[in-house]
Amino acid sequence: MKSPEQREEWRRQAREPDPSVRWNLTSRENLPEEIFAILTADDDFMVASGVAHNYTAPAWVLDELYTRAGLHEIAATNPNARPELKDQAPIGSFSRNSIDRYLEQRNASLARRRQLTSLYEHGVHPGGPLLGTVWASIHGQSVFSED
């Protein structure tokens, strides 16, 4: 746990008028949820983008950032994003860490892990088909909701 002084300093930085100070704060690991909330609500695109790139950002933060213009793929490819969010991004845009986390989240069998990993490793980077489409093709069913 961080000291009260550290938390207060992060609160000050998160509300700093200079966006470069707020952006620098987004690279910190394991920020308190309160600080993530302040930074997630920031109107500055670079600050919001920095939060979406933070591999310790909670899933609820990534859900919120996904709704903002220009942040869809960044938020969806973060390892902490929910699998339903990851399904919406191209497979080749993920890091290997994010793919591994997706397989854990989907409780993939060893055979399906090998299939998806092979398709990821031999696919187009960045880009390619949506991860959800690839998963559905090896899983035998759609992961997308019917609207």
> Judging from the principal axes of the Cα atoms, what is the shape?
elongated
Mean pLDDT: 93
What kind of oligomer do you see?
Answer: single chain
What would you call the structural class?
mainly alpha
Span of the ends, CA to CA: 43 Å
**What is the element string, with H for helices and E for strands?**
HHHHHHHHHH
Low-confidence stretches: 143-147
Structure in words:
This protein has helices at 4-14, 19-25, 33-40, 45-53, 59-66, 72-76, 83-86, 96-105, 110-121, 131-139. With 147 residues, it is mainly alpha-helical.
The gist of it:
This protein is mainly α and 147 residues long. Helices cover 56% and strands 0% of the residues.
What key attributes describe this structure?
single chain, about 150 residues, mainly alpha, 10 helices, about 55% helix, elongated, disordered C terminus
Task: Show the helix and strand layout.
Blueprint: H1 4-14, H2 19-25, H3 33-40, H4 45-53, H5 59-66, H6 72-76, H7 83-86, H8 96-105, H9 110-121, H10 131-139
Helix pairs in contact: 1-3, 2-4, 4-5, 8-9, 9-10
